[in-house]
Specification:
The chain starts with a helix and ends with a strand. It is α+β, with helices and mostly antiparallel strands. The longest helix is centred in the first third of the chain and has 23 residues. The chain has a domain of about 70 residues.
């Protein structure tokens, strides 16, 4: 192997190691996903139940009004509570969604759960902290 090839190899290994270090060392900002989920607004009908993993119906395809269809994570338990054709309503800035079924009372279900570590994080929006202690209390989980 030539000296120049050896230098290139060492530089590539160094760059790869540095990128791996950055990826593993810096913590992931999980609360950005929770904040995005809470800010999401959904209104539509359940088009079909979807298994993104073989044999596990965890998602539903939602036909939204005047918007493109979207895939929503309901979880295994919530997916059992809904039927194709049910309406789904998720208000902006809420961790809950509602299932509206003909002739039945609306079902209030959790759209997202908030770990206490994220709730106590200084970057978590202050305007939601009071709601987490009262109205949203059921979505706060111990981590």
């Amino acid at each position: 192997m030539k000296k120049r090839d050896l230098i290139y190899l060492v530089l590539i290994l160094f760059a790869t190691g540095f990128m791996l270090f950055l990826f593993l060392y810096f913590p992931k900002n999980e609360n950005k996903f929770i904040i995005t989920d809470i800010k999401t607004e959904i209104y539509g009908k359940i088009k079909k139940k979807v298994a993104v993993r073989k044999g596990l119906l965890t998602h539903a395809k939602i036909s939204r009004y005047k918007k493109s269809d979207t895939l929503v994570l309901l979880g295994i338990e919530n997916n059992k509570l809904v039927d194709i054709g049910d309406s789904i309503l998720k208000h902006k800035n809420s961790p809950f969604f509602y299932i509206l079924q003909k002739g039945k009372n609306p079902k209030k279900l959790k759209f997202v759960s908030i770990p206490k570590s994220i709730l106590n994080d200084k970057t978590f929006p202050k305007e939601w902290k009071d709601s987490c202690k009262t109205v949203w209390k059921s979505v706060v989980i111990d981590d």
